[in-house]
Design goal:
By secondary structure, the chain is α+β, with helices and mostly antiparallel strands. It has one domain. The protein has 5 helices and 4 strands. It has helices at residues 2-21, 23-59, 112-121, 128-137, 154-178, and strands at residues 73-78, 87-92, 97-103, 106-111. The strands form 2 sheets. Strands 1-2 form a two-stranded antiparallel ribbon. A two-stranded antiparallel ribbon has the order 3-4. Helix 2 runs antiparallel to helix 5. The longest helix has 37 residues, at 23-59.
Length: 179
């Protein structure tokens, strides 16, 4: 029995020594796992940012359609977070035009970002197109407790609704990388 325990201890000790000799390999394996976890989390964040963008387009009121058009939205990835971490920003494209209005003094251009801010923060009655859009998507056209309606605060509501699914997606991607 004592002989078996000594052999077992020698076997364990030799494995520890071989791992100590291959410390670079252990370090490399740990580093690769970490990089896979980060890449997986970033891919999950990117997917969720696109889903948040789609949700915001769905919640946006509809008059002429510029806020509901994917051509006017973009998801921007930048390494401008804390310690150079990647951030994903959902926003309207710079320079996109909401509409051109003719007046006595000529044509006035309304930039989409300006229009979007007014529509997001403003108080107004929804038009027929917004009501039809809400019906088509199965949403309400007046504020409800669940937040699934077409109208004001469309960006804020989309971000709030997608917050928990985003956390879950990042956690799952990280777990997959570590397993």
């Amino acid at each position: 029995m004592a002989f078996y325990i000594i052999l077992k201890w020698i076997s364990v000790k030799s494995k520890l020594v071989s791992h100590a000799r291959n410390g670079a390999q252990i370090k490399l394996n740990i580093q690769n796992i970490g990089e896979r976890a980060v890449r997986g989390a970033q891919a999950a964040l990117e997917k969720e940012a696109l889903k948040t963008m789609q949700q915001a387009m769905d919640f946006a009121p509809l008059k002429d359609g510029p806020l509901s058009s994917p051509l006017n939205w973009e998801m921007r990835k930048a390494a401008d977070g804390i310690n150079g971490r990647n951030t994903f920003t959902v926003r309207l494209k710079e320079g996109a035009i909401a509409r051109r209005r003719k007046s006595k003094n000529g044509t006035r251009v309304v930039h989409l970002r300006e229009y979007a801010r007014l529509v997001h923060d403003g108080v107004y009655n929804l038009g027929e197109n917004s009501k039809k859009k809400a019906a088509r998507l199965g949403y309400s056209f007046s504020p409800v407790s669940g937040g699934k309606y077409v109208g004001r605060l469309y960006l804020t509501r989309a971000a709030n609704i997608r917050r928990l699914p985003t956390h879950r997606a990042v956690l799952e991607a990280t777990k997959r990388a570590l397993s």
